[in-house]
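Reply to dn_fold:

You asked what the input looked like. This is it:
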Amino acid sequence: YYNFISPINRQKLEDIATSALQSNTVGQIQKLFDQYINFICLEGEMFCLKQPKDSSISYYNLNRGSVTDTEMEQMLDTITESLFSLCVTLGTVPIIRCPKGNAAEAVAEKLDKKLRDNLRDARNSLFGSDGAAAGRYSFHRPVLVLVDRSVDMATPLHHTWTYQALAHDVLPYHQNRVVIPGGEGVGGAK
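and this is what came back:
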């Protein structure tokens, strides 16, 4: 049995198959598993995409002036793969929201495409199990808010340096209502 932490590409699968054929060990291979665990769960409602010993994804690397298009594309793909792994593990397809014109939008577009491609193939969908299928068709889908911290440098001065505190302050609910400045509260069931 082969267990991979993250999905492997077609070329690597073919390399494994070729090696197994050449060494006459095909009969010993029972199954290959993609585990989709490209994230670290720190608490019940908090996770980290950065893997230990992986310095490729960092605020510095994403924002340094000398980053090449290829490097940026690889970082965005890594972030997308990690978020996709989180969605697969949770068994739910989120509603994705982000500001336009920055890295968050690029990740949102890539993640949306990856989720749609997976859902398109009903036989092989990672969201097709009993619990996940119910979540996919549910009207109670979670909202995934992607933001690029480089566009808002004042916020860290007003909040602690954790995303958990920031999300709590950015997304406050007062009696399940959202307050619009100059208007009345909107929406929300009681």
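The mean pLDDT is 77.
Hope that clears it up.
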